[in-house]
């Protein structure tokens, strides 16, 4: 029997990961941040591999790399993610994860539209680019990265534009996704609403 899947999509730094982890912890589901798959590919591209080869040879260990959170890797991930062969190479892993017994939460850009179109719960989490840039700036500065708010905003906007306009699996809400704007919502409220939705459909 298929597992119960919660699909969470949205742009960078909207709160997908935080909501996804909290929902998974609450219900005892497994959680996969699918952005890590693309980031792991992006990191290998920066080391000189082609994106297609990186996607085809990706190992679970590659997701543990603590350099995956940098802006350079995010940018390389977004470029690689526009290549259909890269996306195709990552589908089976995501399907297997979604179908595991015991339930799973997957967050990314195309989970509700392409990877798990039959997921019983789909959330699309957004926030304004300014709010998201502010969050990402705070996160990166706390880690000691030398970034400016303007620079982070420009990166976030460039990545949103590329992710939303690519031909293959563009970032967009599924027709039946519940929209959640976290621009003015605190994270506890967003988590509580997500948990309510999952509880109602379980
Ligand atoms: O979510 P995160 O910011 O880690 O994702 C990095 C990049 O990976 C995104 O900008 C996007 O281009 C790509 N991605 C994707 N599909 C997903 C998850 C991430 O195209 N399901």
UniProtKB/TrEMBL annotation:
GO terms for cellular component: cytoplasm. CDD domains: CMPK. GO terms for biological process: pyrimidine nucleotide metabolic process. Its EC number is 2.7.4.25. SUPFAM superfamilies: P-loop containing nucleoside triphosphate hydrolases. ATP binds at residues 10-18. Belongs to the cytidylate kinase family. Type 1 subfamily. This is Cytidylate kinase. It comes from Sulfitobacter pontiacus. The lineage of its organism: Bacteria, Pseudomonadati, Pseudomonadota, Alphaproteobacteria, Rhodobacterales.
């Amino acid at each position: 029997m298929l597992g119960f899947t919660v699909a969470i999509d949205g742009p960078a730094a909207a709160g997908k990961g935080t909501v996804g982890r909290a929902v998974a912890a609450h219900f005892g589901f497994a959680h996969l941040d699918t952005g890590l798959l693309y980031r792991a590919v992006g990191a290998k591209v920066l080391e000189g591999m082609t994106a297609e080869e990186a996607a085809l040879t990706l190992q679970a260990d590659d997701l543990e790399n603590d350099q995956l959170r940098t802006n350079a890797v995010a940018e390389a991930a977004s470029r690689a993610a526009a290549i259909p062969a890269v996306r195709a190479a990552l589908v089976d892993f995501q399907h297997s994860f979604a179908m595991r017994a015991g339930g799973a939460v997957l967050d990314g850009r195309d989970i509700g539209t392409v990877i798990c179109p039959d997921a019983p719960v789909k959330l699309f989490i957004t926030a304004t680019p300014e709010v998201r840039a502010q969050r990402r700036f705070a996160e990166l500065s706390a880690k000691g990265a030398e970034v400016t708010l303007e620079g982070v905003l420009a990166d976030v906007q460039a990545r949103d534009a590329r992710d939303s306009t690519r031909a293959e699996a563009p970032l967009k809400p599924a027709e039946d996704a519940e929209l959640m704007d976290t621009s003015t919502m605190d994270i506890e409220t967003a988590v509580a609403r997500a948990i309510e939705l999952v509880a109602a459909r379980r």
